[in-house]
């Protein structure tokens, strides 16, 4: 069983100056739980190379991904339709923990595996039409600490934050409408990182 690490989460402070809400809760898992979870997910998740569409060209990423749901459904992402896998027992437990801390519900989980700092994710918004509009996205980070950046679509203002091992970040309200986010590449990072984003998808 996962135990909650710290009850005094820093949940009130919005990291964005305007046009959205990003809350960083810090570490919500103990070091031991976070490390055990990381190792377990590395072994048990059905990791696949992702395919992204860049200027009409399909590119296979080095980063790996997997999509799990509370039920099996088709979803469209980067212009490609795929089918979710059923949440494993471990993912169900993590979902429960994230729902408890964030006081919201989710029905899907996208996992990304970055083998080291040479892999990242470019600026984008998570505003696919399958997603619940203005729904909260909860992001749990495990493994190597990485910088995460937000950039406002109009003012271009940038906000950087460090995502720690076992930490939770929430992106709420109009964040996806006005801001993009990215996981920048970094030569300094030599360890892998797993990120889980819990989302609410409209099931057809
Ligand atoms: O790896 C991360 O922290 C972010 C991943 C992300 O933005 C996404 O999956 O949409
Ligand atoms: Fe994203």
TrEMBL record:
Can you supply a Gene Ontology BP term from the record?
A: DNA alkylation repair
Ranges of residues in domain Fe2OG dioxygenase:
105-202
| Pfam families per the UniProt record, alphabetical | 2OG-FeII_Oxy_2
Q: InterPro entries recorded for this chain?
A: AlkB-like, AlkB-like_sf, ALKBH3, Oxoglu/Fe-dep_dioxygenase_dom
This protein's source sits in the domain of life called Bacteria
Record keywords, A-Z? Dioxygenase, DNA damage, DNA repair, Iron, Magnesium, Metal-binding, Oxidoreductase
Cofactors named for this entry: Fe(2+)
Which PANTHER family does the UniProt record give?
A: ALPHA-KETOGLUTARATE-DEPENDENT DIOXYGENASE ALKB HOMOLOG 3
Name under which the protein is recorded = Alpha-ketoglutarate-dependent dioxygenase AlkB
């Amino acid at each position: 069983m996962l135990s909650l690490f710290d009850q005094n989460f820093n949940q009130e402070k919005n990291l964005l100056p305007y046009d959205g809400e990003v809350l960083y809760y810090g570490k919500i898992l103990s070091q031991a739980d976070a490390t055990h979870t990381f190792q377990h997910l590395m072994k048990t998740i059905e990791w696949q190379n992702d395919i992204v569409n860049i200027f009409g060209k399909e590119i296979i990423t080095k980063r790996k991904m997997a999509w799990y749901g509370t039920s099996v459904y088709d979803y469209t992402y980067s212009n490609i339709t795929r089918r979710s896998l059923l949440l494993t027992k471990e993912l169900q437990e993590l979902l429960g923990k994230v729902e408890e801390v964030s006081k919201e519900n989710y029905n899907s989980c996208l996992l990304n595996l970055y083998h080291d700092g040479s892999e990242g994710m470019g600026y984008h918004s998570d505003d696919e039409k399958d997603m619940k509009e203005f729904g909260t996205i909860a992001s749990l980070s495990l493994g190597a600490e990485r910088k995460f950046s937000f950039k406002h679509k109009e003012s271009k203002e940038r906000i950087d934050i460090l995502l720690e091992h076992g930490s939770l970040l929430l992106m709420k309200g109009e964040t996806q409408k006005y801001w993009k986010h990215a996981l920048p590449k970094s030569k300094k990072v030599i360890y892998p990182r797993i990120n889980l984003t819990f989302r609410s998808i409209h099931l057809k």
